[in-house]
Amino acid sequence: MTTEETGSRTRKTAQAAVLEYEGDDAAMLAVEGEDAGAIPLSGAARRKRESRRKLMAAARKLFVERGYHETRPQDISREAGVGHGTFYLHFEDKLDCFLAFTEEAADELHVFVETHHAVAGSLEEGIHELLTAIFEYSDENPGVLAAALTDVSVLSTGDTGRKMPVDRWAEVWAELLDKWKEAGEAAPDLDARLAGYLIVGAIKQGGAYGFRRKLDRARMIDGMTHIFVRALKK
After folding, report:
1. What is the pLDDT of residues 96-150, one digit of tens each?
2. Among 188, 187, 175, 223, which Cα is nearest to 203's?
3. Which residues contact 23 (CB under 8 A, 6 or more apart)?
4. DSSP 3-state helix, strand, coil percentages of the chain (rounded to 5)?
């Protein structure tokens, strides 16, 4: 049995430490999204928040550099500079940590997408702006999208109950395509949901191809926009 497989046992041994933090969870949650100076955190709550921040940063680095399968919980703990038991105070197992990483990436990308989509009008402008947002995010966060788009079905046979980035981004495209259909710009018989998944897959593979071939970014975005518009217009 591997160390990774003993995660549930390790988590049980950490329960005493969990109890130490339980009383501070409400205080920590109370300041989420608020001015840091509004409600002072207790020492334990600050330590817990800081340890999670370190673990998330370490997980992000290792999932990008090594991939999911080559990253172990103990590697993340070591990279974060915290005890291995601390990992199980925040995550059930490696998959839980990976899903937290993908949710963080999806939230970050959403900010880029919203900013660019706000200035888009037509179908062509919208696609071009969304592609620009995605590639700008990728430039600022190298390797993150490729790692986050790992298919969770190959990692777990059960239903995680959580939405993966590919699903979130495909739904964003589907919603926009439905609006463009209503506006008469996209084909009326277009399956928006299917098209959303196809676009996400094309962006992932096309982006990887462009990176390997060192293609000019602006020309690549223009080319992908042209292909998508030709495929989606009525």
Report:
1. 999 999 999 989 998 988 888 766 678 999 999 999 999 999 999 999 998 988 8
2. 223
3. 44
4. 75, 0, 25
What's the rounded Cα separation, in Å, for the pair 138 and 160? 26
**Burial (Cβ within 10 Å: 0-12, 13-18, ≥19) of residue 117:** middle
Instruction: Report pTM.
Output: 0.74
* Closest C-alpha to 80, from 99, 96, 63, 105: 63
Three-state SS at 19: helix
Is residue 233 helix, strand or coil? strand
CA torsion angle for 169, 171, 172, 176 (degrees, to 10)?
Answer: 140
Give the CA dihedral 188, 192, 198, 199, nearest 10 degrees. Answer: 90
Q: How many helices (H) and strands (E) does the chain have?
A: 11, 0
